[in-house]
Structures are given as C-alpha cells and as structure tokens.
C-alpha cells in the first residue's frame, strides 16, 4: 500500500479495514516519520465516516465568567489568585450583553467556563443559568469536569446531583476542558489541585447517563510522553464504548508563553501527526475538530486532510489561549473560504453536528 515498513503498513491497514488498534499499535504509529502517510490514511477513514460534500463549523463565544482560580495550574497564563487586583467575576448584565451580541452575529451557542472560584456556591451557577435561559434561546455548553468536581466539593453535593441541578437550571452540554492529559503522573505535576483523571472521566460518565452530550479534549506538548497520549486516547475510547456520549474529540498544543512551564513550543508537524493518529485510534468518535486557535488558519485547513472534519468555532471571544501569547482570529467568511478551497461546502452546525 505505502512504501513503509511491513509492521506500520499492517497497522494502518487494520485501521482502514475497521479493526480496532491496540495501544501498542497506536504508539507504534508515532515512530512513522512520513506524516503524509498518516494523513492519507486518516483522510480516508474520515471520508468513510463523513462522505457528505461539506465540512462544518459553529458560531459561538467563549465566555469566562471568572478568572479567579485556586487550581494554580502550571500551564495556565489566564488565572488570577483570589486577592489579585485583576481578578474578576463577570457581572450578570455584562454576561447577558455578550450573549446578545453572539446571537446577533448568528451564534446559537455559548461556551462558558471559569476558574475554580473558592466562594461561589451552587446558587450562583443555578441563578446564572436560569437568567440566561429566561432571556435567550441559546445552547449553553458550560462547566468542564474540574469545575463540576469543584462545585461538588465546595457544596458537599454528589457529582451526579450537581450535574442534575445544573441541567434543570438550563445547562445543555458539558465541554471537555480540563482533560489536558488523562494520566495522573502528568496531572500531579501540572495541576495537583485539579480533579484526577478518573474524576474527569466520572463526570463525563454521569453526564452521559443523565442524557447530556459532551466533548473530549486533549492538550499535549508539555510534559507528557507519547505513551501517555495514547493512554489518554484509550481512556476516552473506552468511555465512548460504554456511553456513546461524546460528540467530538478536540486536541490542541500547549502554548508556553507567560506560563510556569519552561517547555519548547510544539510544532505543526507533531500536531498533524497526533490528529491523524487520533482519527485512526478513536474509531468510535464521529467528529474531530481542527484547532485554528493554536495552529492558525493554514494548519487548521490542512487538518481537514489529516482526519478532522470540523473547523471548530469562530470563537467570537477567547481569553485563555490569548493569555499565553497566541492570538489567531478568524471570522465566518475566512473559515468558509478555507473549507471551500479544499473542495467542500462549508456548513454551520450545532453542538450535536446537526446542520443549521
């Protein structure tokens, strides 16, 4: 098939034939230097899952309701300690105005996440959700697993009950933020005050059981090994087998500027290789998003030939990656242009990948 070793050829052949790869086989793919081969295989699998003549994107806004956080993650340039002069909790009127602007720009969804604030209790979040839903018909994609676990601990309420209360108040789905690498060796070094890998998975399992859909993410290129990247993919693949509740996988590279980690920035080569391997490995994930927010427009476009089928969000507002010194911006017209340049139609979607 390809001019590569028999072993790699067999592994890629297995994936193309719909046979699930083992962790050892997934890891072996990282040894392949010619990422074009991986891209071709990932693109073939993507086209089998998505034979339609379009690729998708979503219009939404990332609203950070507070930057005050007790987690102290070494990779984060966004958070502020409790008494920091630049710490904030967004006023409700300001948040509602941001949502109004989003809807006026054609958005149907908000992504809402924040720091692990030490004194905002459950009533704050319930009231916020109710206020949004009273005023707007908007999909609320909010509160990543570390936040849910934090709410649970702070209020003395079981995780399942936290999710149920938030859902009743108007929460529609949960983002996959805070996954980083789902291996506790990494988490203990990077973010010891944040939820464990198992707690992250347990939040998603409970959300899926309650009928909510969620996304799965991976931030890589910091202290993790390739083995740990595969372990991360294996854990979310197993949970997807169990629940089927993940709508998409989203991966991006760690941005080191202004953080506590002295790590070289990972290049686009390793990003594209990892995206392609994810498409080969995550056989039960229908959708993979490109990360133009960290990679820029052209690499995000190339991702659509390396296994991704979605360009992600227009990100009307984004603060966390920007705080780490990266500030790519794209509007609807540019995203659609990048998609059509590849010969696809560009279609706006919702969280469930329904075309709007």
From TrEMBL:
Residues reported in the UniProt entry to bind (3R)-3-methyl-D-ornithine: 144, 291, 313
Cofactor note: Binds 1 [4Fe-4S] cluster. The cluster is coordinated with 3 cysteines and an exchangeable S-adenosyl-L-methionine.
InterPro entries reported in the protein's UniProt record: Aldolase_TIM, CofH/MnqC-like_C, Cyclic_DHFL_synthase_mqnC, Elp3/MiaA/NifB-like_rSAM, F420, FO_synthase_su2, rSAM, rSAM_sf
Gene Ontology biological process: menaquinone biosynthetic process
SMART domains reported for this sequence: Elp3
Organism: Candidatus Brocadia carolinensis
Broad class of enzyme this protein falls into: oxidoreductase
Family matches, as Pfam families: CofH_C (PF19288), Radical_SAM (PF04055)
Cofactor: [4Fe-4S] cluster
Function (record text): Radical SAM enzyme that catalyzes the cyclization of dehypoxanthine futalosine (DHFL) into cyclic dehypoxanthine futalosine (CDHFL), a step in the biosynthesis of menaquinone (MK, vitamin K2).
Radical SAM core domain boundaries: 55-286
Binding site for [4Fe-4S] cluster: 69, 73, 76
Family statement: Belongs to the radical SAM superfamily. MqnC family.
Pathway as given in its UniProt record: Quinol/quinone metabolism; menaquinone biosynthesis
Molecular-function GO terms, alphabetical: 4 iron, 4 sulfur cluster binding; 7,8-didemethyl-8-hydroxy-5-deazariboflavin synthase activity; iron ion binding; oxidoreductase activity, acting on X-H and Y-H to form an X-Y bond; transferase activity, transferring alkyl or aryl (other than methyl) groups
EC number in record: 1.21.98.1
Record's protein name: Cyclic dehypoxanthine futalosine synthase
Catalyzed reactions: dehypoxanthine futalosine + S-adenosyl-L-methionine = cyclic dehypoxanthinylfutalosinate + 5'-deoxyadenosine + L-methionine + H(+)
NCBIfam families in the record: CofH family radical SAM protein, menaquin_MqnC
UniProt keyword annotations, A-Z: 4Fe-4S, Iron, Iron-sulfur, Menaquinone biosynthesis, Metal-binding, Oxidoreductase, S-adenosyl-L-methionine
Positions of S-adenosyl-L-methionine binding: 75, 180
UniProt keyword Manganese present: no
Top-level taxon of origin: Bacteria
